[in-house]
Design a protein that fits this description.
By secondary structure, the chain is an all-alpha fold. The protein contains 23 helices and two strands. A hairpin with a 2-residue loop joins strand 1 and strand 2. It is globular. One of its GO terms (cellular component) is plasma membrane.
């Protein structure tokens, strides 16, 4: 392994993350909420090891090998999540485990929380929670990929380890750094549009910016305990629905739609088309059940609430206007199940990704056809393009690793004290980076034991980094020369 190169990269990431503390520090000074010294302390504490790592790695000019990329990403996410807990310890007065859980939940865009009484928190701490999700949404690793060439280190292995989806070799532009820059331009542009829309719909400027950060990142943190339900505004809900969907669509598709000045690009993409049809079908089913069960007496509120909650869950955002865990029939479990599907590859959403589920379904149908035509050659296609067997193997491997990891973590969560339903939804909402669950974790993880919170935090990282980035580090072969 290239130890000096790894240290240098991690050092630059720590330095970069420490500078993000300047934003809540400035907000603290603006609102005079007394938290400026806490964010200044956090900045220094995070900056110092970054400078040390960068100094020890000085002079490194080697590119990264594949396993170096996995190690850097794992160290980065684990390390940043740990140091990101410091403002919660100082400003929100949380214990270490609770602060770590909150930081991991924010950085992985999960949105699960242990905090109640959000309105009583200082504005700067509230904004810090939101910006954690925004930076985690696209991934500071991708931002780093745009910077690494400037310091003489290539970043392709980081991009492959961090980017969601099974076809990670593809790039929007020939140069990787330019690809990362394009992704961030699109990301920032959509966020700004979302903030302006929220503000025009009646939010205060602070709430508009704060919620845009957690909407586009599909994170789901809010500045109010009631989430978006606090605003009691159908217009705000409609805006949130639109931008949650935008966050869950492959950002390369957004880029192509902008470059070609055509919305037809979205319908031409097979994954986006499948995703939108799937969401529409679930919304229709949920609306009918809510109406016929008497949960709502007319169709409009049934359709409104079903649309918002279904989109919030399937995009793994986790915003709430109602408590869907109390909905009738099988709807609560159905919503947890659709979180496994998640959004599109190349988006900020969690879950297994629509593209994988789509490919898995095609592979299942192919096996059925083979029973009828054993000698037939039946390629799996995606948008008219034949997928390589290596891609199909990676999809199957991911699914197997996902299921096995889920089972093990759920058993551990039950051992930590949760009942079966709560343990199932706690791991589902953590691995899928969703936030709200069922049972004891329907609204908060505050009642979960410290052991359970640590298990959930690990599950969040596992889901955010798409299983293999973490699991590969646990294999003896990874550490052999």
């Amino acid at each position: 392994m290239r130890g000096a190169t790894i240290l240098r990269i991690v050092g630059f990431f720590f330095i970069g993350f420490s500078l993000t503390m300047l934003i809540p520090l400035a907000i603290s000074l603006w609102y005079d909420d007394g938290e400026a010294r806490h964010f200044l302390t956090s900045l220094v504490v995070i900056l110092l090891p970054g400078l040390v790592f960068a100094w020890f790695g000085r002079g490194a000019r080697h590119d990264l090998a594949t396993r170096d990329g996995f190690l850097v990403v794992a160290i980065f996410w684990g390390g940043i999540s740990t140091v990101a807990s410091l403002p919660f310890i100082l400003g929100a007065h949380l214990g270490f485990v609770d602060a770590l859980f909150e930081a991991v939940s924010g950085f992985t865009t999960t949105g699960a929380t242990v905090i109640t009484g959000l309105e009583q928190l200082p504005k700067s701490v509230l904004f810090y929670r939101q910006q954690l999700q925004w930076f985690g949404g696209m991934g500071l690793i991708v931002l780093g990929v745009a910077v690494l060439p400037l310091v003489g280190i290539g970043g392709m292995q980081l991009y492959r380890a961090e980017a969601p989806g099974p076809m990670k070799e593809e790039k929007l532009t020939p140069r990787l750094a330019h690809t990362a820059q394009v992704l961030w331009v699109v990301y920032v542009g959509i966020t700004v549009a979302n903030a302006v829309a929220y503000w025009l719909a009646g939010m205060t400027p602070f709430d508009a910016v704060a919620h845009s950060l957690s909407t586009v990142s599909t994170g789901g943190f809010s500045t109010h305990d009631e989430s978006l339900g606090w605003f009691r505004s159908p217009l705000i809900e409609a805006i949130a629905t639109l931008f949650m969907l935008a966050g869950a669509i492959n950002f390369s598709v957004h880029f192509l739609a902008w470059r070609r000045r055509s919305l037809r690009v979205y319908l031409q993409d097979v994954e986006v088309r499948t995703f939108l049809l799937f969401v529409a079908g679930i919304i229709l089913l949920a609306s009918l059940i809510l109406r016929t069960s008497g949960e709502y007496h007319t169709l409009p509120p049934s359709l409104r609430n079903a649309t918002f909650e279904v989109v919030s869950v399937v995009t793994s955002t986790g915003f709430g206007t109602v408590d869907f865990s109390r909905w009738p029939d099988f709807l609560p479990v159905l919503l947890i199940f659709i979180s496994f599907v998640g959004g599109c590859g190349g988006s900020t959403a969690g879950g297994m990704k629509v593209i994988r589920v789509h490919v898995l379904a095609q592979m299942g149908l192919r096996e059925v056809r083979r029973l009828i035509h054993p000698r037939a050659l039946l390629p799996v296609r995606l948008g008219g393009r034949v997928l390589r067997e290596r891609t199909l193997e990676s999809v199957w491997g991911f699914f197997a690793a996902y299921v096995l990891s889920f089972v093990v973590l759920m058993l551990l969560m039950m051992h930590a004290g949760l009942d079966q339903v709560s343990a199932f939804s706690a791991i589902a909402t953590s691995m899928n980076n969703l936030g709200p669950g069922l049972g004891e974790v329907a609204t908060s993880f505050s009642g979960v034991s410290d052991a359970g919170k640590l298990i959930a935090a690990f599950a969040m990282l596992l889901g955010r980094l798409e299983i293999f980035t973490i699991l590969v580090l646990l294999t003896p072969a990874f550490w052999r020369r």
